[in-house]
Amino acid sequence: MTPDDLSRALFDLVNGLVERRRAAGAEVSLDLSADQVTLERPKLREHGDWASNIAMRVAKPLGANPREIAAELADALAGIDGVASAEVAGPGFINIRLDAAAAGALARTIVDAGDGYGRSESLAGGGRINLEFVSANPTGPLHIGHTRWAALGDSIGRVLRAAGAEVANEYYINDAGTQMDNFGRSVLAAAKGEPTPEGGYPGSYIGDLAARVLEREPKLLELDEAVALHTATEIAYELQLAEIRASLERFNVHFDVWTSERRLQDKGDDGLSDVDTAVERLRAQGHVFDEDDAVWVRTTDFGDDKDRVIRRGTGAYTYFAADAAYYLDKGDRGFGHKIYLLGADHHGYVHRLRALAGAAGDDPERDIEVLIGQLVSINGAKLSKRAGNIIELDDLQAWLGTDALRYTLARYPADSPLTIDPEVLKRRTNDNPVFYVQYAHARTSAVARNAASAGVDRSSFAPELLTHETESALLGGLQEFPRIVAQSAELREPHRVARYIEELAGLYHRWYDNCRVLPLGDEPIGDLHRTRLWVNDATGQVLRNGLDLLGVSAPERM
Asked: Which of 18, 28, 77, 226 to pair with 319, CA 20 to 30 A apart?
């Protein structure tokens, strides 16, 4: 019996109480859906497998004491196949214990479901979601701050998809404006052997790019200055963006869409760019006004601290204009919901982006989310020799490994500052969380291999034999996975998956120490051994599924 089965049974029983009271002449108005009948795992295992507060939620509409309602529901639950007992606790909680066969049947369900276990349709039908993260300027390598957002953003996308949402990971390439001009001037200066120009980019990576540009265009320095600058900028931009893409792919982060700011500024056949038309589209919504020779958006109507200039009196557009064009472009591409992941230094953008959504005719409370991440530091990390003033993603990866980095960065809420201890991450001990979980998965694989060698297979399944207390605890943990995934997606908090699989690994290790899959000595192979193999393989599957949601590998040997 799954938690969903049990919730549905409770829902039906509550409806039965309503109908009986109405038949007795009582006026009962109860607005309750099946997904509102929630279950929780009791903190103490002796209190049962599941607990529900449904009696306290419906007592007032039913005109009864919560404990009386709980007692009626508990009596009815006790008669349902698969429920061993149901008891009333406290002010009206119902503690439910499943019988061994009903609880153990989950092992087969998980093995049969495979990669699909934990997935749901809880967020299906909500429209297409655009998830934008990282979006670093293509003027240098990715650094430690981008690393945190890469890990979190990709994991948020994974849990959203697991909950049935339609999601596209998007990278916005800021490839227009002053920073690109300074980038190109820096590369050209390096190609000429000149010092970094004022406002330019230092670091030996600029020299490396200049050398590669010269390889691509040997006659660069013979070109007219303006042509040389354009050529150097374009080739260096292409090379640096390719390096960013490669770094992210090595970090197991994939983007579905790469959107160029230049595209939004390119003129169409009508002589207008997306930035040009963005102003008029916002004006049509009634939130644009002209004042002091400039064009403004009245963003204070939507909670911004001040109205924003979108086009200056000189005719030049502000950064807000590009933001507006980009936001509208997302909607034009069919994304009804937009999620932005921004660093701690972009906190001021929250009200601005929400106001922009309102000015565009969207609902700022429904159509846009802005998640702010806090800073991350790593003890002992060295500044990049190439970039000089940053800690590079590539260096971190080479030092600590993709799995350790991804797991650790996804293990904490985005809004909590984070300091990583590399000495812990490099240990092959249980105080290293990623090792602890991966080792549990490797152990399930070793048990499966040894079982095959010993002739233990899954040819029979007798879940009623799974009566050891560690089996009850492990199966209870396995039941939690779909709820954890759905909750992580709903709250945009993949760290819940990490903490869950750590707890599951602990439950598995305790089960492994107490319940043998392989027979001892001359002991014949029996149904209990075969059934426990199902439990072992189910645990491996859930650990694998959980690690995959974090973009972390599940090794079979360690």
From this structure: 226
73 SS3 class:
helix
- Taking residue 336's Cβ as centre, other Cβ atoms within 10 Å add up to 15
**Does residue 61 contact residue 14 with C-beta atoms inside 8 Å?**
no
Which residues are paired to 195 by β-bridges?
Answer: none
Are 244 and 173 in contact, with CB atoms under 8 Å apart? no
Q: What does the pLDDT profile of the chain (558 residues) look like in tens digits?
A: 778 889 999 999 999 998 998 888 888 888 888 778 888 888 887 888 899 999 999 999 888 999 999 999 999 998 899 899 999 999 999 999 999 998 999 999 999 999 999 999 999 999 999 999 999 999 999 999 899 999 999 999 999 999 999 999 999 999 999 999 999 999 999 999 999 999 999 989 999 999 999 999 999 999 999 999 999 999 999 999 999 999 999 999 999 999 999 999 999 999 999 999 999 999 999 999 999 999 999 999 998 889 999 999 999 999 899 999 999 999 999 999 999 999 887 877 888 899 999 999 999 999 999 999 888 899 888 877 677 778 999 999 999 999 999 999 999 999 899 999 999 999 999 999 999 999 999 999 999 999 999 999 999 999 999 999 999 999 999 999 999 999 999 999 999 999 999 999 999 999 999 999 999 989 999 999 999 999 999 999 999 999 999 999 999 999
CB 298, CB 307: distance < 8 Å: yes
Burial class (CB in 10 A: 0-12, 13-18, 19+), 538: buried
According to DSSP, residue 143 is labeled B
Comparing C-alpha atoms, which of 129, 124, 59 is closest to residue 88?
59
Please return the burial class of 363, using the count of CB atoms within 10 Å of its CB with bins 0-12, 13-18 and 19+: exposed
Do residues 321 and 352 touch, judged by C-beta distance below 8 A? no
Task: Count CB-CB contacts under 10 A for residue 491.
Answer: 13
Residue 18 contacts residue 62 (beta carbons within 8 Å) = yes
Task: Determine contact, residues 343/372, Cβ cutoff 8 Å.
Answer: yes
- With beta carbons less than 8 A apart as the criterion, state whether 338 and 307 touch: no
Strands 294-297 and 308-311 come out as antiparallel
Cα separation of 330 and 325, whole Å?
Answer: 9
Instruction: Calculate the alpha carbon distances from 441 to 360, 372, 402, 469 in Å.
Output: 48, 33, 18, 21
Contact yes or no for 237/138 (Cβ under 8 A): yes
- Cα-trace Rg, the chain: 29
Residue 480 CB neighbours (<10 A):
19
H-only helix segments in 24-143 = 54-62, 66-77, 100-113
373's CB contacts (< 8 A; 6+ apart) are 148, 149, 152, 341, 342, 343, 344, 414, 415
